[in-house]
């Protein structure tokens, strides 16, 4: 989660939305990323999607043994990507400022762990308070 | 759907997976795309995601009045993107060669129309028969 938080901080420094993610396979980070809505004018590069894209094309044998660490509860799009690739576990920094599709993950057998890490909560709370319009755009509201 | 089929054919000509999509708002195409797994070495650019990305950042007022045309039944990731942005309708070329997460779309109030267009069925059937490994990679199998 420390590495996902680093990605979130990097996004903030770039003027973007502070959400980060890393994809882990056999205890090694094989993909890392952060939200790129502002930086790339992207509608689809949430942190989790960016990490998956940066990990490159992988086989199902790899995905099904991966863990995805993300600083924020994953939205329905990112949860869908987790389910497409049958990623076995998602570790979530926090779900206090936004609750994504954790239920759908759990219902489909994905292990979900929520840390409610105070660093993640603080970062998102401040960002949402200061950028409500941008935040709503990111979650389709 | 003709325009989505054109995108699928374009992908095939580029050596890629023949799936195309277009995003329509007020009867105009505002985003178009095709699967870019092969072309961009992408793990996330399914046709629907590519069309959404190419449409750029839009407000919820626009998304909720959009229709997404796709040559193939959308997987759980692409269906998740539709739900994130509350796209009102998805028109599907065919769901005979692959059945995506149509149930999840319908359950969440998205209008779903399946054409079972023979052009789409033929294109995917031939592609899957000739490229089973690549196809399985694209759907996380």
UniProtKB/TrEMBL annotation, chains A, B:
<keyword id="KW-0479">Metal-binding</keyword>
<dbReference type="GO" id="GO:0008835">
    <property type="term" value="F:diaminohydroxyphosphoribosylaminopyrimidine deaminase activity"/>
</dbReference>
<keyword id="KW-0378">Hydrolase</keyword>
<dbReference type="InterPro" id="IPR016193">
    <property type="entry name" value="Cytidine_deaminase-like"/>
</dbReference>
<comment type="subunit">
    <text>Homodimer.</text>
</comment>
<dbReference type="Pfam" id="PF00383">
    <property type="entry name" value="dCMP_cyt_deam_1"/>
</dbReference>
<dbReference type="GO" id="GO:0072527">
    <property type="term" value="P:pyrimidine-containing compound metabolic process"/>
</dbReference>
<keyword id="KW-0963">Cytoplasm</keyword>
<dbReference type="InterPro" id="IPR002125">
    <property type="entry name" value="CMP_dCMP_dom"/>
</dbReference>
<dbReference type="GO" id="GO:0008270">
    <property type="term" value="F:zinc ion binding"/>
</dbReference>
<feature type="domain" description="CMP/dCMP-type deaminase">
    <location>
        <begin position="1"/>
        <end position="112"/>
    </location>
</feature>
<dbReference type="GO" id="GO:0005737">
    <property type="term" value="C:cytoplasm"/>
</dbReference>
<protein>
    <submittedName>
        <fullName>Cytidine/deoxycytidylate deaminase, zinc-binding region related protein</fullName>
    </submittedName>
</protein>
<keyword id="KW-0862">Zinc</keyword>
<comment type="pathway">
    <text>Pyrimidine metabolism.</text>
</comment>
<dbReference type="InterPro" id="IPR016192">
    <property type="entry name" value="APOBEC/CMP_deaminase_Zn-bd"/>
</dbReference>
<dbReference type="GO" id="GO:0055086">
    <property type="term" value="P:nucleobase-containing small molecule metabolic process"/>
</dbReference>
